[in-house]
Amino acid sequence: NAGVTQTPKFQVLKTGQSMTLQCAQDMNHNSMYWYRQDPGMGLRLIYYSASEGTTDKGEVPNGYNVSRLNKREFSLRLESAAPSQTSVYFCASSNSGTLPFFGPGTRLTVL
Amino acid sequence: QQQVKQSPQSLIVQKGGISIINCAYENTAFDYFPWYQQFPGKGPALLIAIRPDVSEKKEGRFTISFNKSAKQFSLHIMDSQPGDSATYFCAATGGTSYGKLTFGQGTILTVHP
């Protein structure tokens, strides 16, 4: 029982490159989330998926896309990375009426 | 617009002392207020949470105090230990999806032995 797993753990990109951050949960949760963490800003919601087949924008969605592949997996894609997207990205999951459980994070640097 | 404001940014406490972190929120639609603890290189982990129908919740050495009229809540860590050294985030949520959290800026707590 791994909880929420994220790959990769670390990534360095050049400006303009694309990449996909992967997230999977084994807790049979319906909802999944992507947050970014920046110094002095706390965590901010990028996108979320309330249930399989649905996705919605959060507070800071610009420059990102998401895919809810199935109930377990929720990916975050950067089509053309920018230095402003340098951050630590956290995936989380929850069921209705419960607080989210976070993964270990992906540290992304865009040069 | 920061809907949840957290202070202080950093806090240094001696072992055995009391650590106090404060948060204030603006949105009266929030109805669930968790605190998360984060160690370096790890994801945030739920520590304790409170709903606005109670003024205080205690779990071990950790207590949340809640003042609904002032729209403020705080975390008290009693008998602080070096192992409590971490970053603490307050958060707020409401409605139908408790996973949509609005976080405070975070407080880096250092407990000296």
Helix content of chain B: under 10%
| Strand element count of chain A | 11
Terminal Cα span of chain A: 36 Å
Topology pattern of chain B, helix = H, strand = E: EEEEEEEEEEE
Q: Which percent band covers the strand fraction of chain A?
A: over 45%
What's the gyration radius of chain B in Å? 13 Å
**How many strands, which pairing sense, and closed or not: the largest β-sheet of chain B?**
6 strands, mixed
Order of helices and strands of chain A: EEEEEEEEEEE
Largest sheet of chain A: 7 strands, mixed
**Class from secondary-structure proportions of chain A:** mainly beta
Helicity of chain A, as a percent range? under 10%
Distance between the amino and carboxyl termini of chain B:
38 Å
* Rg of chain A, alpha carbons: 13 Å
Q: Count the DSSP helices of chain A.
A: 0
How would you name the oligomeric state of the polypeptide chains in this document?
heterodimer
Mean pLDDT of chain A: 96
Quick description:
Chain A has 111 residues and is mostly beta strands. Chain A is 0% helix and 52% strand.
Task: Please characterize this protein's 3D structure.
The complex is a heterodimer of chains A (111) and B (113). Chain A is mainly beta. Chain A is 0% helix and 52% strand. Chain A has strands spanning 4-7, 10-13, 19-25, 31-38, 42-49, 56-57, 64-68, 74-78, 87-94, 101-102, 106-110. In chain A, the strands form two sheets. In chain A, strands 2, 4, 5, 6, 9, 10 and 11 form a seven-stranded mixed β-sheet that branches. With 113 residues, chain B is mostly beta strands. In chain B, strands 2, 4, 5, 9, 10 and 11 form a six-stranded mixed β-sheet that branches. The chains are: A mainly beta (111), B mainly beta (113). The interface between A and B is medium-sized, with 28 and 27 residues.
